[in-house]
Specification:
Chain A is mainly α. Chain A has 7 helices and no strands. Chain B has one domain.
Amino acid sequence: MWLELALISIIFLGIVILGNNRLATTIQLFALQSFILSTTPWLIHPGLHAVIMAGVTILLKVILMPTLLFWAIRHVSIRREVRPLIGYGTTLLLGGFLIGMAFLISSKLDLPVRETSNLLVPSAFSIMMIGFLLLVSRFKAITQVIGYLVMENGIFLFALLLLEKTPLLVEMGILLDIFVGVLVMGIVVNHINQEFGSANTINLINLRE
Amino acid sequence: MELFLLLGLPPLMAMISFVARENRTRKMVLLLTAFIHLITVASFWCRPHNVQFSPFLGFDALSQLILTFISILFFVVSIYLMGTLKEKGRPNKLFIACLLCLLAAMTLVTMSRHMGLLWIAIEATTLLSAPLINYHRTPQSIEATWKYLLISSLGIALSLLGTLFLAISATTTVKTVFLPDILSHAAFLSPAWLKLSIIFLLVGYGTKMGLAPMHTWKPDTYGEAPSPIGALMSGAITGCAFLAVFRVAQISFHAHLQEFMSPILILFGILSLAIAAIFIMGQKDFNRMLGYSSIEHMGILVLGVGLGGGAIWASLFHMINNAFAKGLIFLAAGNLYQTFQTKKVENIQGVIHRLPVTGVFLIFGLFVLTGFPPFGIFYSELLILKQAITAQRYVVVFFYLLFLSIIFFGLSKIILEMALGKPPEHVHKEIKKESFFMIMPLLILTAVLFFTGIFVPEGLYQAIDEASMLLGGR
């Protein structure tokens, strides 16, 4: 029951991120989504493993990464997304369509493992697709990073299927890698700000054939 | 002990270089670490090829091959950096520390016996190389870094998903993704999930390797990164990515899914050759052209693995020769950039008159890279062709020959013009002499190329044989 509620609110937050155009709100929404995400290991398999996972997720994805992203945009004056590649209405429609697709695909795949909830796989696919959509349709560097992170959240949900099987060491390594990835991206976003005066990747057009 | 020297020492030295005061000390630390690494790796050749340190870490013939050329290339690049890295001005703390950690990460890639750990190590190489690409901090290099980070991270995310699918396909039998377990139980894995996993892993690690159509970051990154970093990326890091692709191929070989996997690899291979052929013709920027040349060679590598049989041996042989040839030509490009301060082909003319030694090495690099006999790449390209003909894949043969000859023509035209063309009259500034550190690395790489391509030692032959046996070749 609680797990379904958590999963549905994670998808819901994904849609809200898609329709949002303020950078600061996007980061906060991502933090909220990650917070709900961190409760899911406990809802699936209560135990020490889940507590450690939740703790590390909260530390990295709810506290450190948003702080870092806020640091990266501290000098940006225009805190709104510029006109995106695909309009907001269309993006939302596309997002809804992708969620439908995700449910369709996951109904076709049969899992060799016992599922805790039949919502888990479809919501993982939905979140991954929403993240991907965000990544390809926006121009602000920060929104692209958030898109990547939302995608990672989807992969995290998928990994919950294997919670008992993968060694904790590997999971920690993966989380740490993603954190360092965001750290490096944050620093590059900062460089883009300083060099181009704004964090629009639309300015990055020097390197072409 | 060896484990510490290979994996622990470089990060430790990175910390030391972070507290060191002078740029000069840091360079010495880099060279020293690279040397110790090389000696340790060399010591492994005196023992049997299969060493298992722990469930997570171990060696087989393939990892030993790749680790060896990574180590040699890194050592040569660190000699080169001794001469070219500026001692005055901005501290090179971050640069040296990232380089050292990159060495450890690449070593971890070759040694990991767990698919999750392999993923972590590959992602680490991506992240550690980003600050290296952005060394000049110009708008162009920032753009290149951003594209590199975003596209590689996306690819890496897909391969993480692929690793998870692999784990799901293994839940009913082995329940882990340790490579030996997966390989021994490959036939019992759930086939639908395994196929899905193979696709995601190939696309993900293929992005890291720079295969078309996921290659778009490559010319930008190679064009803007400092040349020694280009040498490391096109030689060593792509070697790591190829190792990952090879592991995937190994899994599908043991699961009897070659018919499923080889068309994907052949398609990637031919597409990469096509993209390289189209864009090398009339390329205006030398380093970008080398990026496309790297796409071409990565294409040949996966084409060889896709064709199977004797082509696997050829692929591995090609990988080693390509790594050193790319190292050679990128370092020569570095010498050119130092003298001419530009990467544009039209402004670099008459190299042989201004920088005689570099000019000779440039032409030599061209011969090796385009597969002139008697160099190694000629031999491996011929073996792959032979395998394609015996397998009666005539369409592949046709495109392979067509694109290779276009690339040969494009590359030779550009490089020969640069080397032998008339130097422009008006740029007669004082001619910088080629220093010891600019020539020495090129000389070492040339010597190595002779031993990997022409006078191949018996030990190397056996190691390649053993490695290709992993995929059932030869």
